[in-house]
Amino acid sequence: MLVTKSKKQGAESVWPASALVPLEANFTDKRGVIQPLVETLFRSAMVIYSKQGAVRGNHSHGTDWHYCYMLSGSMEYYYRPSGDPKSPEVLIVKAGQMIFTPPGVDHAMKFLEDTVWLTLSRNPRNQRDYEADLTRIQMV
Questions:
Q1: 61 forms bridges with which residues in the sheet?
Q2: What's the rounded Cα separation, in Å, for the pair 62 and 134?
Q3: In-domain check, residue 5
Q4: pLDDT tens-digit profile of 37-89?
Q5: 34: which of 27, 42, 97, 126 fits an S-S bond (Cβ 3.0–4.6 Å)?
Q6: What is the domain-level CATH number for residue 83?
């Protein structure tokens, strides 16, 4: 179960209850497939290319949250409540799966192969504001 520092209120009440986000059924017809991902307001959408063996994250966010949808490749996703001394939980996330990280969760990602993924975030991702919201940790 995903744990945050505060009780869910307002927009937070629609956050997923677990790190691995169940996707809604897709819509398929003769033209192809539409896969719904996120139906919420966010301020940043990025495509990230990560090389096999790379580690990203090793931090927590004060106010930011993000959905990460794997387009191709796979990763190990490490997460735990911020400041918890216990070992993090680990998920293997593969292409076609999505995870959610709320504020107040230590998280890191280790890429098992070259990977392309989307991140959809609450806050803008200019480097100054992004860095100001982070607490760096070492998990991986």
A1: 134
A2: 6
A3: no
A4: 887 778 889 999 999 999 999 999 999 999 999 999 999 999 999 989 999 99
A5: 27
A6: 2.60.120.10
